[in-house]
């Protein structure tokens, strides 16, 4: 069975995108959450790349992730910084909490990991359910870069102890009807020329049209929708290579 953000994948993510590494998103989310005084939730918080800087800036943020390996790394980073946020294992479509949040954030296209339409719609309804009256959802989307089936890319990372991790990624499927791609990844950890560990990963990723997603948010009950591009608030996207951010409010 192919894994999903398991041990090697999580380790590579933490090296490639360490805590505080920003695509412009950390600064953008800090600004958009500046007036939020209550609790913020980050579904799919991963290794804490964004959660920890927001926490250190004074934002009352907690998070969850479907990957126990990602959460283990996140908890370690928090302990190093004497931080103790609430972190737990859960899925976006089914998490439950007695708490209502003033904001829920899903940065950097993470929402697209819900490649099945029903689950993505369930997640939006679940977000709305867990937001306070007047609360807001801020969520990033990205467009697929290309549809070259069979395309293979290889990357290499050197660990602190001298081990080497390689990642071979192959685009295996493009489903134009249901709007998702599937990539197959192979992670390998090497030590002095000896293969120590191998991990296979199936990585699906959904895509949406800009106005399509606006309609989906409206149908889910969100209002006052603002669309931004490349973390410039209110600038409508002009190209498919831009990161697209939706900000929407809930009024009950």
Automatic annotation (TrEMBL):
SUPFAM superfamilies reported in the protein's UniProt record: S-adenosyl-L-methionine-dependent methyltransferases
Domain Methyltransferase: 40-135
GO BP annotations, alphabetical order: methylation
UniProt cross-references to Pfam families, sorted A to Z: Methyltransf_25
Superkingdom: Bacteria
Gene Ontology MF term list: methyltransferase activity
CDD domains according to UniProt: AdoMet_MTases (cd02440)
Keyword line: Methyltransferase, Transferase
InterPro entries: Methyltransf_25, SAM-dependent_MTases_sf
Name of this chain's protein: Methyltransferase domain-containing protein
